[in-house]
Amino acid sequence: MIAAASAGLLMYTVANGGLQIFLVHPGGPFFSKKDDGYWGIPKGLHEVNEALLDAAIREFREETGINPSGDFLYLGSVKQKSGKIVHAWAFRVEDNKPVKIQSNTFEIEWPPKSGIKQNFPEVDKGEFFPVDIARTKIVEAQKEFIYELERQV
Predict the structure, then answer these.
(1) Domains of the chain: residue spans and CATH
(2) Whether 25 contacts 104, CB under 8 Å
(3) 47 falls in which pLDDT band (50, 70, 90)?
């Protein structure tokens, strides 16, 4: 069985004397009380015949409402605990101002077995973190993207 491939973007800046990493927190009731180890880069599956970088840009836009631009630096790929392969690119922005997320939504039955369908944002918040804090917030496998970004910048 071939693992599903996702593509995402890691937005960063250099501010307050160091590297600042932008991470997003997954929305929905399953993650509402989860923090460290659950944040990640905006990412998602690529469409058939869609280039991975194009998918990463599209997913970033859908999950944050931000239109990424600039030079995209390939950070490689990692295999997450689920078996999913995630490819990532980084891009730099000039400041680390707070970001208002405008995420797409998904629908699930909630509460479970209630017959009630509800919509939740795919991403409920996003913010910049200094590297040391970002490493505690991010999904374990995605830490490699932070290390690779540090190596390249």
Answers:
(1) 5-24+34-102+124-152 (3.90.79.10)
(2) no
(3) confident
